[in-house]
Design goal:
The protein contains 7 helices and 10 strands. The strands form 3 sheets. Strands 5-7-8-10-9 form a 5-stranded mixed β-sheet. A 3-stranded antiparallel β-sheet has the order 1-2-3. A hairpin with a 5-residue loop joins β2 and β3. By secondary structure, the protein is α+β, with helices and mostly antiparallel strands.
């Protein structure tokens, strides 16, 4: 496309602020291109001037704003639905307990009440996620060593990893800048992402967790890379949308909640994936000096 654009420009087909995507080392890069005639003081045409700007960061910001706007609208709707559902569930739970008191221990109907109770608990968990997604709890920021929080989170996920024959590999940066986070909320982000990675691995595999200081932004960064089935390119823009899931029993709220928490922490998440090769989630957190205690 660059060769074609230059050829057109040299033949007088000039344009301003044209967006296109070019391939650089197998990476699709959005660019903004303008061309104009290059002339000397005698108004003789010497060639063509081409200006190219990398739009990668601009597109990232646009996507973050778009995602935030969508989540704000859905969040208000989710809050209303959650409250309306919780009220009848409370009544169901209460009457179910009274009903169970009338059954003998060996009454087969007890099994039915247990199933109802389990499903009501599942709905309550979904409502908790909806409410958190719509109105996250105010974070309690504390200056924290990110590597320590990651180590504690991996201990919590040890059993799910063992059940799927998944090995955790760590590559922690020793001079990572401190960050101000709510450790409990941030662990939820990590758990949601790493559990997705475990579930994406079909037989056995590995998840690599790497920390480093991003050279462009100075942010403390975490790469979580799995060897799972990967995400089709057309699905990546939707994975943070509420209720979008490719899992049979998924709620589609895990990554939406993670994205909401990162918004509160003034950080963000990026995703890259290759089908049948794996997925990498990158978490960016601003240094502690850039986060207030409010």
């Amino acid at each position: 496309p660059i060769r074609e654009m230059l050829d057109n420009a040299l033949h007088g087909e000039l344009f301003q602020n044209k967006e296109m995507t070019i391939d650089i080392n197998h990476r699709q890069v959005p660019v903004l291109i303008s061309t104009s005639a290059l002339v000397n003081n005698l108004n003789e045409e010497l060639g063509t001037l081409v200006l190219m700007s990398d739009l990668t960061e601009t597109k990232k910001l646009e996507e973050q704003v778009r995602r935030a706007d969508k989540l704000a609208i859905i969040g208000e709707l989710a809050a209303g639905v959650a409250h309306e559902v919780r009220n009848p569930l409370t009544a169901i739970t209460g009457y179910l307990q009274l009903l169970g008191m009338d059954f003998a221990l060996d009454d087969p109907r007890r099994e039915f009440t247990n199933i109802i109770s389990t499903e009501v608990s599942r709905l309550n968990h979904l409502i908790d996620q909806l409410l958190y997604f719509s109105r996250p709890l105010p974070p309690h920021f504390i200056k924290t060593n990110l590597n320590k929080v990651l180590s504690e989170t991996l201990l919590l996920l040890n059993n799910p990893g063992i059940r799927k024959n998944v090995t955790f590999i760590t590559d922690f940066c020793s001079d990572l800048p401190p960050v101000k986070i709510d450790a409990g909320q941030f662990k939820q982000v990590l758990i949601n992402i790493i559990l997705n990675g475990i579930q994406a691995i079909e037989n056995e595999g590995s998840i690599t967790i790497k920390t480093y200081k991003d050279p462009d932004t100075g942010y403390a960064s975490v790469d979580i890379t799995d060897t799972g089935t990967g995400i089709p390119p057309e699905n990546i823009p939707r994975i943070f949308d509420p209720f979008y899931t490719s899992k049979e029993k998924g709620t589609g709220l895990g990554l939406a909640v993670a994205d909401k928490i990162m918004e509160v922490h003034r950080g963000y998440i990026e995703v890259s994936s290759e089908p049948n090769e794996g997925t990498c989630f990158t978490i960016y957190l601003p240094p502690s000096l850039e986060v207030s205690d409010e």
